[in-house]
Design brief:
The chain is of the alpha/beta class and 460 residues long. The protein has 15 helices and 16 strands. The model has no long low-confidence stretch (mean pLDDT 96). It binds the ligand N[C@H](C=O)CCC(=O)O. The ligand N[C@H](C=O)CCC(=O)O binds next to loops.
Length: 460
């Protein structure tokens, strides 16, 4: 397999995006690195977008791109879907406010819908992001079990806080044996004490996972995982069944982080596909209809420990004689259950209920086309994923099952292809996963495959 030595792709990218370059120089004087979320950065500077419409993004230089990032998968109806725009407008006009600061009807409407699609969620709470959702899920596990360690899998991402910002993308040489990985913090400023409370597990390795969970069972409150790693590497069914069984046996809560997979790989997420009921689920991205949103749901007895009606809480100055703040699990937020966001989310779900199948069909066409184009150049590549997310993995392995397998793939070639694709008008942050929307149709798929063909012909 040939590896491209010098990046022609980056050179062409720079030629095509002079205004983004100029903008990034200025924005670096305002925001560290020129970005307000590290994930938005890539070398030598990210493309600065100015408009979005349907499946397309338009940058400062007037270049048009078919967008496969879709804001890290959040926009499952594409950019500016008219029905979502209308729902947002209607909510603001009809209800006359952006925020009630009280319970309101859309909270229950959304909850009813989500609980119907995710039967494991017997009670739910709203948050303002997927990160906040996993944070609450972990606190619930601590509060319910009275244990204060959490286990996560190597290579899985659950948000940017200390407990889970561990071994997301570690250097394999530093990360210990594959069947007993050690925790590596992924940021400066992570409190080493908190990092030590996180136990790292090997994905899709049931035997080793059971051994580690058994060792820590008395201290572990929960196991959190992306049932589909990074949104694209699926757990084996046996692994998932075994994990559910052992967590039940050991009194450890099973937490599904379905922020990426919820409403993307099926309406009912990975849990629907695997037929597994986790104890707690975190949702985000798609269900916010493009706005910041998260949902945590789970077993009634677990969720109900946050009910202020049962106990007292930090905001209750009367502090009942019979209980104190520690008896209730604190969860609050001024913007939780934001009506405009709920309106956008509900409309998104309604559209997906009729259109999700076509997104899956189109995703399959694109995946197949990409693999065929690689094969025509005798390059071994796979398009790994379920539903409307996948990743292009250039590898000699027959199967990619976890983080360590993924690290053996040819990232250098994939990256070079991605820069050339950007030049050809396909928007994909280099090395990231593909997400499709209801508005990615035949035109966009054909255009993408033509771009791939052009790039592969150029490189090989
Ligand atoms: N919220 C994350 C970054 O800030 C998104 C991670 C991902 O979707 O890959």
């Amino acid at each position: 397999m040939s590896v491209v030595k010098e990046s022609e792709g980056i050179k062409e990218y720079i030629k095509k995006t002079p205004k983004s370059k100029e903008f990034s120089e200025k924005s670096s004087l305002i925001m560290p690195g020129g970005v307000t979320a590290n994930i938005k950065f890539f070398e030598p500077y990210p493309i600065v977008m100015e408009k979005g419409k349907g499946a397309y993004l338009f940058d400062l230089d007037g270049n048009e791109y078919v967008d496969y990032m879709l804001s890290y998968g959040a926009l499952k109806l594409g950019h500016g879907h008219p029905k979502v725009l209308q729902a947002v407008q209607n909510q603001l006009q009809d209800e006359g406010t952006m925020l009630f600061g009280t319970p309101h009807k859309l909270e229950v409407e959304m909850g009813t819908k989500v609980m119907e699609l995710y039967p494991s969620m017997e009670r739910i709470r709203y948050t303002n992001s997927g990160t906040e959702a996993t944070l609450l899920a972990i606190r619930l596990a601590y509060g319910y079990t009275g244990k204060y360690k959490i286990a996560k899998f190597e290579g899985h991402y659950h948000g940017g806080y200390d407990q889970v910002l561990q071994s997301v993308n570690p250097k394999v040489n530093d990360a210990g044996p594959a069947n007993n990985p050690i925790g590596i913090s992924e940021s400066r400023g992570v409190d080493p004490y908190i990092a030590e409370q996180t136990i790292i597990l090997p994905f899709n390795n049931l035997e080793a996972t059971i051994e580690i969970l058994t060792k820590w069972k008395d201290e572990l409150a929960g196991v959190i995982l992306e049932p589909i790693q990074g949104g694209f590497i699926p757990a084996d069914q046996d692994f998932m069944d075994g994990l559910r069984k052992v967590t039940e046996e050991l009194g450890i809560l099973l937490i599904f982080d379905e922020v990426k997979t919820g409403f993307r790989i099926s309406m009912g997420g990975a849990q629907q596909i695997y037929g597994i009921k986790p104890d707690i689920t975190a949702l985000g991205k798609v269900v916010g209809g493009g706005f910041p949103f998260g949902i945590v749901g789970g077993k009634k007895e677990v969720m109900d420990i946050s009910a202020p009606s049962a106990f007292s809480d930090v905001f209750d100055s009367s502090q009942s004689k019979h209980s104190n703040a520690q008896d209730v699990l604190f969860h609050s937020g001024t913007y939780n259950g934001h009506p405009t966001i709920l309106a956008a989310g509900l409309e998104t779900i309604a559209v997906l209920e009729t259109e999700i199948a076509s997104v899956f069909e189109n995703t399959e066409k694109l995946k197949k086309g990409i693999v065929e184009l690689f094969a025509s150049k005798s390059i071994r590549a796979q398009t790994i994923g379920i539903g409307s997310i996948f990743n292009v993995v250039i590898t000699d392995l027959d199967e990619v099952k976890n983080y360590r397998d993924l690290q053996q793939s040819n990232f250098a070639l994939r990256k070079e292809i991605d820069y050339h694709l950007l030049v050809e008008g396909i928007y994909m942050k280099p090395l990231n996963r593909y997400s499709l929307s209801t508005v990615h149709g035949e035109t966009e798929i054909n255009r993408t495959l033509e771009a791939y063909e052009t790039v592969l012909n150029k490189l090989f």
